Amino acid sequence: MKALDMKNLKITVKKNMNYRGIIYFILIFLFIFNYAESTIAQDNIEAKADTTKNLSHKEKKAEKKQLNKEALKGQHFEITSFLTLAHMNSRISITGPNGVLGASISLEKFLGFKNNVAVPAFKLKYAFTRRSSIYAEYYNIYRSVKHDGNKEFEFGDIIVPKDIGTIKIYFNTDIWSVGYRYTLINAVKADLSFFFNIFFLRVGTGIDIDKENITKDYAFTAPLPSFGYNFSYEMAKNLYFGASMSFFILELGDFGGFINNTNLSVYYETTKWLKLGLGINYFNLQVNTSEARFKTDIEYSYFGPNIFTGFVF
After folding, report:
1. Angle 94-95-97 (CA atoms, 0-180°, nearest 5)?
2. Shortest CA distance to 87 belongs to which of 117, 119, 108?
3. Which residues are CB-neighbours of 269 under 8 A, at least 6 positions away?
4. Residue-wise pLDDT tens digits, 242-274
5. Could you read off the pLDDT of 87-109 as tens digits, one per residue?
6. How many CB atoms lie within 10 A of CB 313?
7. Stretch (H or E) spanning 223
8. What are the domain boundaries of the chain?
9. DSSP for 261-275?
């Protein structure tokens, strides 16, 4: 175990809202739209049927219901599991009463947290029409490191004495997301959907010292709205390119947040009910919040490849 140099704990964190995500969003969307525009004509079957048949409103409604039923047969649910090998970059600052800085740390550079972390994630989607669906996803990042404390230091509102022995410092993150997705283009080879969702972010950090039986936690839960798109394009038979991005900036009173979650992937439909894929995920989160007497500022990002498996039924 490394000796913990407490001088490095007094590092000031500067908020840096990363607006490059806006540029990424525009460029990827233009690329997607170029593909999707060339495939829209392939999915005019329903529109042509409505214009060529003299159907009553009731008959059209029944036909639409039947088309949805046929299209979604065996396709209502989709469960996807992901595993991302993420290269992390994390920073947290805790400010106590009267603006006194209790701890301001880079988890990787100054505390020795591992840069590469395996991040599991799960997603559940339910489609109730060909164009409308709801979904929920969850992923977690649990991290900890142990040090030999050799100097006295402050952590929030407590003082940790020197030569106390082994100190465990942890930083745990749980992220839930729920949302609604609407499919704008549902063509033979291309699919373009827009969605609105809410991230529920649970962040907890603290220290655990067994020798003196000291445990101190700081945690908060923050809801962050987001919007974005999903896109898929069939490059060859059963081989697809996929892209998605969610993005949001919010400043409201004592709370502020920034999200950019971008995914690019290639996947293969081995059967109607199984998808196997490889992708790249970039996630950038910045949050500043006040709870009780403490203010917390977090910069949190990772980038890395992932593998995923999807089950459709």
Report:
1. 140
2. 117
3. 238, 240, 275
4. 999 988 877 666 777 788 889 999 999 999 899
5. 998 877 767 666 555 566 777 88
6. 11
7. strand 214-236
8. 2-312
9. EEEEEEEEEEETTEE
Q: Which of 216, 215, 96, 212 is nearest to 161 (CA)?
A: 212
* pLDDT average, residue stretch 154-168: 70
- CATH 1.10.300.10 corresponds to the domain 2-312: no
Question: Taking the CA of residue 42 as centre, how many other CA atoms within 13 Å lie in the half-sphere pointing to its CB?
Answer: 14
Tokens of 311: 């089950």
- CA nearest to 105, candidates 30, 35, 5: 5
Q: Are 72 and 85 in contact (CB under 8 A)?
A: no
Asked if 166 contacts 1 with a C-beta cutoff of 8 angstroms, the reply is: yes
CA distance 282 to 74: 32
Reported pTM: 0.76
**Beta pairing partners, 264:** 243, 280
Report the DSSP beta bridge partners of residue 53. none
Beta-bridge mates of residue 76: none
Going by C-beta distance under 8 Å and a sequence separation of 6 or more, which residues neighbour residue 239? 266, 267, 268
Between residues 268 and 165, the one the model is more confident about: 268
Range name among 4-13, 31-40, 237-246 with the lowest pLDDT average: 4-13
Residue 66 in 3-state DSSP? helix
Q: List, for residues 166-177, the tens digit of each pLDDT value.
A: 788 888 888 899
DSSP bridge partners of 42: none
